Amino acid sequence: MKSIYLTKIREQNPLIHNITNIVAANFNANGLLALGASPMMSASEEEMVEMPNLSQALVINIGTLIGKEQKAMLLAGKTANAKGIPVVLDPVGVGATSYRRETVRQLLSEIKFALIRGNAGELATIAGETWQAKGVDAGQGDVDLKTVAQRVAKQYGCVVLISGAVDVISDGVQTATVHNGTPLFPKVTASGCLLSAVCGAFLAVDEGEHFAATLEACVAYTVAGELAAQGLTTQVGQFQIRLLDELAALSPEMIVQKGRINE
Amino acid sequence: MKSIYLTKIREQNPLIHNITNIVAANFNANGLLALGASPMMSASEEEMVEMPNLSQALVINIGTLIGKEQKAMLLAGKTANAKGIPVVLDPVGVGATSYRRETVRQLLSEIKFALIRGNAGELATIAGETWQAKGVDAGQGDVDLKTVAQRVAKQYGCVVLISGAVDVISDGVQTATVHNGTPLFPKVTASGCLLSAVCGAFLAVDEGEHFAATLEACVAYTVAGELAAQGLTTQVGQFQIRLLDELAALSPEMIVQKGRINE
Amino acid sequence: MKSIYLTKIREQNPLIHNITNIVAANFNANGLLALGASPMMSASEEEMVEMPNLSQALVINIGTLIGKEQKAMLLAGKTANAKGIPVVLDPVGVGATSYRRETVRQLLSEIKFALIRGNAGELATIAGETWQAKGVDAGQGDVDLKTVAQRVAKQYGCVVLISGAVDVISDGVQTATVHNGTPLFPKVTASGCLLSAVCGAFLAVDEGEHFAATLEACVAYTVAGELAAQGLTTQVGQFQIRLLDELAALSPEMIVQKGRINE
């Protein structure tokens, strides 16, 4: 395991434009700041053409759509594509309702994504697999997640990160798994959303190496989670605060030393 | 004091659909996760018919209405009624403006609620009593809260929970008071909203025993607050984090042992 | 350094109406509660005429405009002007896009503000100076901030607070600098927004002494930050929680003793 991009984030302090939801907005902005990036949370249709010209990456999260954000997402996504900055999709709860499925279908058809980051249920839905999703939670099903990741990656020409107890990353050719993390992650709301935002920061500085950057982002985030969870059992409140502390304290050395990946 | 429903929440992990506000969204989702329930925060009109079919309870909170949520509330509420899942109303700051009063009047006339949870000022307003409300805070007045709770419960055929230093619960026939809690609760924003969401989780698993479930919810939440406040004086930040920790650590035994109720 | 207004806030518990964004809403409400004020977060156009009649100050924050808030801001601002309560403007990221510049231009032309609180980049933009802003962050430029503060204060007949490593406060005649603070402030999202809200609470009780009240607000907030940062290096999560604790624990004596100002 190498660490290339964390240092670049701290050096370049990239501006990450997030179109996100009312649950994740504060936590994601704080997580990006802790990491060393500069968050910009905006979904105003009126500034979606200018914003990608100021930013180094765009993260689209469909968590709490109330209608107007959808237009903003399409506009910002297309402008980001035209400018050539990476766009990350977090298809929150896409399996839950037909409205979410249709929203994601439209985003995937009109925007070229660099990365899709979701849980098993969300990616299974995008892959067209049968899956018992449960709201925005992962739910359960019986599909091979590596196959799902590879198939979706090939179909949309992007990197896919399926996060869970084991994280699966694929660009359709290379596939890797990350074995870091803690059971406290799914007990903190928007911790998946924050991983998507963190990936946005890594992709912002990767000069096109999206697979390697996603892998490092995933290890960085899950190692920070492991460190934050040390000595904790059920303390979900403390975990959430410590996660921000550990993202700020994280060093390339910790990523190299603690990362547990299979490529 | 018995504890029946906390264990059921942990076993069944019910999906609680929250239509809530930008202040409470993150804290309430984390509180529900800590407790053992599964939060879904959505106010998209487009999915309000599907969402109640996936959920085991609906919590409607009028905290920061910006127009579109109102339609979503009515649609989700009616669908939840048709499906037969319990619906909780949190009439945040209903006494503050005529817009809030009219919103709550309409919700109460078109949706059948299982529970109305508010502070003294909010319930006094619904009961038509004179009360000096102060924004979203309780304010002050000189009415007998038991009488208010009973009257509102009878009028709307639901359980009423008036929270404050002493919490009053009534279904119009039975009335109980809960004497747990801490003065730090009103110093944390959305701590009332979270109580409403927690009640939603208890009602989701109660098989129609709404009075008993509300009573246990109220004791569970206020006991968690007491435990969180131990050793604290003015540390409102730490209290907020510890409250999440204690909701996660709470056991049926603690509810039985520490609950102080008068029935 | 004197402390006059903190005690008045605790005695009068003023209601502060905030039209704010999805990132800051929860943190600002908790910060105001910690300080001793009573927050009301609402952007519903339908109650913007009634709300200023209940409140002692209005804080307008343009952080995450999604269109409808703008009408609400104008309506609430004009009503607040008519009633005579102080109005604070936080022009978040005004330099970032033409939409934000136009929004702020309109607010400044139609509403009389008591205070404009922003970072160097935001105030330089309002002053018409060349400045390299970076999203919502301060960015960098080469202007004399005292001159900027004085000029904007004169132009709009209000107090200006430019926050940064050194905070500059001017009403066009008097100018002061505050030298308290911690490098952890810019690592916590919405910490600038919260300073604006805190200023709102001080102005709510100042009986027209806006310069003195802004000065005390700024010292109070930055001293609380210093105390919160004691013993911390990179722990941005803990800092955020401790800041709330310190705002609640803050005394007039600490303001007098620890305030470092140049007038």
Which structural class is indicated by helix and strand composition of chain A?
A: alpha/beta
Main sheet: strand order of chain A: 2-1-3-4-5-8-9-10-11
- Assembly type: homotrimer
* Low-pLDDT residue intervals, each spanning 5 or more residues of chain A: none
Q: Give the helices and strands of chain A as they follow along the chain.
A: HEHEHEHEHEHEEHEEEHHHHE
Please tell me the total number of domains of chain A.
1
CATH H-level superfamily of chain A: Ribokinase
Q: Tell me the span between the first and last alpha carbons of chain A.
A: 10 Å
Largest sheet of chain A: 9 strands, mixed
Work out the strand percent of chain A.
Answer: 15-25%
Biggest interface and its residues per chain? Answer: A-B, 33 and 34 residues
Overall pLDDT confidence of chain A: 94
CATH topology name of chain A, in short, is UDP-N-acetylmuramoyl-L-alanine:D-glutamate ligase
Number of DSSP strand runs of chain A: 11
| Radius of gyration of chain A (Å) | 17 Å
Q: What's the helical proportion of residues of chain A?
A: 40-55%
Family (chains A, B, C): Belongs to the Thz kinase family.
Pfam families (chains A, B, C): HK
Enzyme class (chains A, B, C): transferase
Keywords (chains A, B, C): ATP-binding, Kinase, Magnesium, Metal-binding, Nucleotide-binding, Thiamine biosynthesis, Transferase
